[in-house]
Amino acid sequence: MAKHKYFSSVIALRGLAALVVGLFHFTKGFSHDDSVMKMLTSYGWMGVEVFFVISGFVIPYSLLKKGYKLKHYGKFLLKRIVRIHPAYVLSIFGVIILNYLSTQFQIYEGKPFQWSTELIAQHFFYVVEFFDNVWLNPVYWTLAVEFHYYIIIGLLIAVWNLSNKNWIAITFVLFVMLSFVNIENVKFLRYTDIFAIGTLCAFLKKEIINKGLYLIAAAVLVIIISYNHGIILGILTFSSSIIMAFYDANFNKGALLFLGNISYSLYLLHVPIGGRIINIAKRYDLGEAQKILVILFAMTVSIIAAWMFYILVEKPSHKWSQRIKVNS
User: In terms of pTM, does the model score above 0.85?
Assistant: First the structure.
């Protein structure tokens, strides 16, 4: 990714998205509703949608015009599984262990420790909601949305690589229209419009569409996203798309770039690691300044844990996935 200079913008967006999602979770139910910290982070949950925009761009960009065909679909899914699954699975077992250890302390407050092989299997295949169960980590539902996106986008890119603009337009519109379909427990369908605004960037970068058509299509998608998710998300996802489309950042280091590189690990770990620090702090009568310090400490510990997890787990799995040549 870093070989393409504009990907620095994508990585920085990832870092910012992971940071604001973490801060949102840490302040929710901890900071007072009228506190500065709560007001600054109250929309942090929207970082999830920024991740969807990024995925909507990155995967089509990596496969468009590179000889990818339907026969490569299996390798594409395998590559994605090897990239994301090891860190995901290890985080699941980490959450189970931490949940068990938490219940062994007298200060623990919450539901009794419970788990089952069925629930783990449902996590493994991203189908927890299909069985009306609860995710062990509240962020996991977004990984299910991403995985369902991989299943669909791998098929669509095979069609788009046929270079028939009529079929590209028809299938892209149908993909967007899925966002109007409401099927209980199939959350992916609600976000196809957001993935699509990222895909427009890939179309632009691969010269499938020009700048004028990109802007027109993006404007239409903003209206659809605003209708489906609210005007703030419409503006945010459009801004993210514009940054990826036109802002060719050229930097090789920095806090956001660092956070972007470890963003997946930070996303997986911030609730089970930093969330426990927040949970302990809730038992004390703290002032707002003290709460801010606790939140910053929780985020710092989460970042350190994510960096170690990235080095030990995520980075090796990334290298393994790179060895799988999708179009060979």
Answer: yes
